Amino acid sequence: MAKILVNSSGPLHGEVAISGAKNSVLPLLAATLLTEETCVIEDTPDLVDVAVMKKMLTNYGAQIDDSEQGIIKVSVPEIVSCEGDAELVQEMRASVFTMGPLLARAGKVIMPMPGGCTIGKRPIDLHLKGFRALGADVVEDLENERVIVTAGENGLNGDVIYLDFPSVGATENILMAATLANGTTIIENAAKEPEIIDLANLLNKMGARIKYAGTDMIRIEGVDRLTGCIHAVIPDRIETGTFMLAAAITRGDILVKNALPGHVRPIIAKLKECNVGVDVTPEGIYVDARDRELIATDIKTLPYPGFPTDIQSPFMAFLTTVKGRSIVRETVFENRFMHVVELNRMGADISTENREAIVPGGKKLKGAKVRATDLRAGAAMVLAGLVATGTTEVSEIHHIERGYEHFVNKFKGLGADIMKIEHD
Ligand code: UD1
Which atom, in ligand 1's list, is nearest to the CA of 193? Predict the structure, then answer.
């Protein structure tokens, strides 16, 4: 099995360019199912999850041209199947994003229960609640571990849908389904993540009539058909945060280019609270942690615009090295502390109780054999490895490759002593 080896690297220094956002490109690709015309998606990152989504779309009837780096052209002249492939769905939870567009265009979708990172139960009840509200018949076929959703004879009908939690995936799925529904749909308590706005922008370019995306009440007037368009993916705010933390944890300085500062405000604020220097410049976000007395701080994850749950584990890795006790509170997912065991193997001495982790801080981490327990936890282990004595061996790195483009090379470019090995 492939592994990443990280050696103690000293302060990282240099520039890094952020790639297109994983969490945007996946729903954007799914949205191309809504039209028979060609959609051109630009600034696409080269990720395993993107490859999985391309395979899914192909199974549904998509013709894909990805000959040019960073550009994916998708045409779906006809939906040839509306059944998700169980293996692909197990590999990637974001496969469920194809439910809304398939339901809207083909009137039916059969989806095996989703897989993905093992962070909590991650049900899809809110997605299904939305489809039901739009008039679809939803059958949960528990025996065969799949869901069958069917629209009425006249398609979907707009309605007011209140989400019990501002779920990103449910908001995106309902948004896509509602674009072709009869009448008006309103999503109340909608997610406000930048990826939702990116998706709404793409859909509006395709001819959808969506207003107020980015607020907690999105309004969608259904249209009869959508067309092709050209759209560029927004930069990845979680990759941005990861490299900001690479500067902080190694007490180095990094210019993070092609990043949108407005999307990482809580990360900037929390790093500043820790006395890390963060400057937003025309060239990018400059993070400088050299020769500074750093201060511990508490973090609490929340839906956007709160502190992102996807940066919780990388930030925790950083806090283990800062003198003073910090409390990390996870409120979005119920089981997102699996990296604590791995950080403790390196000497972090973190304790957890329910959704709180207490980080004593000020630890000199030591290299160890650790696992990437999920995508972002994998990044956290690499960050910890950069400052640990000796060598840190990170296994199960397929998680990292799902969501970070050119991960090892970007770190090497900043002076990290890091390499990927294919076999033991
Ligand atoms: C997306 C992101 C993921 C990020 C998460 C929260 C993608 C591909 N992934 O995941 O990186 O960590 O947002 O910012 O965009 N929930 C339910 N019922 C549902 C749906 C969700 O109870 O039907 C719960 C989940 O179990 C979780 C919480 O809501 O506790 C947040 O989930 P959600 O916002 O839906 O996350 P994802 O869309 O899966």
Answer: 14
